[in-house]
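User: structure tokens for this one?
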Amino acid sequence: MPKAGDVVLAEVQFTDTFEIKTRPALVLFEEYDNVVVAGITSNTSMKGIPLTKNEGAIKDSVIKLNYIFTISTMMIKKTLFPLSEKKGRIVFDELVNKLSGLKR
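Assistant:
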């Protein structure tokens, strides 16, 4: 079962097509066999949180917190590696910052 902070290989649908591809994603949380993930891209010119080969990525990548979606646990092919505690804190803080507009 995937845990928050795990980088997984999962089948994901792209937003601009109906095409499904196997791509890396960061698990944000899992509940009732639904997994909320953030997409990861190897296009390092995109905005997001850097993820390096030294941290476990196959190639330097970016965690895209503007690309969050829900998948079934059945769509996860395998767990690749866990984020470091430090990187997990960066992701958490950035998510809280993005959601701060909800707090009134």
